[in-house]
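Appendix B. Raw example, untouched.
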Amino acid sequence: PATQAASAGANVMDDYEEGTFTPTIAGTVTAGSHTYAAQSGLYVKIGQLVFVNFYCDILTIDGTWAGNVELRGLPFTSHGSHLSGGISATVANITSTQLYMILVSSVSSTALRLIEIISNSYGADVATTAGANRTQIQSNATYRSAA
């Protein structure tokens, strides 16, 4: 149905939703007010499992953004644990010496942190100073929602 019809049965499929959302690329300290060439996001939610597909392309970056890079605007708040894990991402125009970058679900948030994989380490947050005009992030991701 268009509105969830919660049932008493734990194994009854009673929560399905699909739609769009508008992702943004932001700094964790100062978000910044970028001019975008493209922003698009699609989602499917089945119970607490959320599948998202998104693309963000900053045409002109706001030089006042600060902190670390994160993708904001996910359609549902993530579960209160790091069980979501890493999500592969395609990025462009981010300065990095590392070959791989992933997105990691923040706890109880509607954001994904951009992490660069470092040899023999968990990885490190990507600083906003690594961004430039035409910074792009694209991914298919799955995470567990809070509800």
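End of appendix B.
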